[in-house]
Amino acid sequence: MSMRSIVTGAAALGVALLVTVAGLAGQAQVELAKAAKLRTPGVLTEQAPPTFKANFDTSKGAFVIEVHRDWAPIGADRFYNLVKNGFFDDVRFFRVISNFMVQFGINGSPTVSAIWRNPAVQLKDDPVKQSNKRGYITFATGGPNTRTTQVFINFKDNAFLDGQGFSPFGEVSQGMEDVVDKLYSQYAGKPQDQFVQILNQGNAFLNKDFPKLDFVKAATIEP
């Protein structure tokens, strides 16, 4: 091999390394920007498209949620911003009640979670336009006008929730049987019984006391 070939090869390798480093740095900046936004809910108010799909890559597999903004526009906008900015990444499915529903949406960081529980961040209720059918996703509430970040997917038709103000904003369009139905459910409501610890310690508590819980690897808005 000639000296010229060695020099040319080294130069090309150097360029490739620079491109890789630049790409990693760019991705890191994107992640830092997302983290900063999650600590500032007031800036995450982008209006969602009329319809959109959110892809959830989980420890059990992938499923897709199709959101219809006209069903519940306030809830749809919140969900869109949460997904787009990585709120659900590494979040546990902490309450899985067979033949009822699966609940998730507490951020793994107690600091971020506390910010989103601030009363100033709570959403006004959407009128209930759709029933809580199997596969439909809805925000959990603690009473009127208290929605924040927790959502649940119905395992079966739960029409009795309609009259309590639970307004679906989308539905699982792919992966209901293969993924959502198979999320780890043996803990049932036990994690919920220790809700304060979940809020105060986040994933550190859930990983220690409920290590078999399935979780979201990453949630993204489909282009």
Class inferred from helices and paired strands: alpha+beta
Please identify the oligomeric state: single chain
Number of structural domains? 1
Order of helices and strands: HEEHEEHEEEHHHE
Short description:
The chain has six helices and eight strands.
Provide key terms for this protein.
single chain, 223 residues, alpha+beta, eight-stranded antiparallel β-sheet, 6 helices, globular
How are the elements arranged and paired?
Blueprint: H1 3-38, E1 51-58, E2 61-68, H2 73-84, E3 95-97, E4 101-104, H3 110-116, E5 136-139, E6 151-154, E7 168-174, H4 190-193, H5 195-201, H6 203-209, E8 216-221
Antiparallel strand pairs: 1-2, 1-8, 2-7, 3-4, 4-6, 5-6, 5-7
Description of the molecule:
- The protein has helices spanning 3-38, 73-84, 110-116, 190-193, 195-201, 203-209, and strands spanning 51-58, 61-68, 95-97, 101-104, 136-139, 151-154, 168-174, 216-221.
- The chain has a single domain (41-221), classed as Cyclophilin-like (Cyclophilin).
- It has an 8-stranded antiparallel beta sheet with strand order 3-4-6-5-7-2-1-8.
- The chain contains 6 helices and 8 strands.
- The longest helix has 36 residues, at 3-38.
- By secondary structure, the protein is an alpha+beta fold.
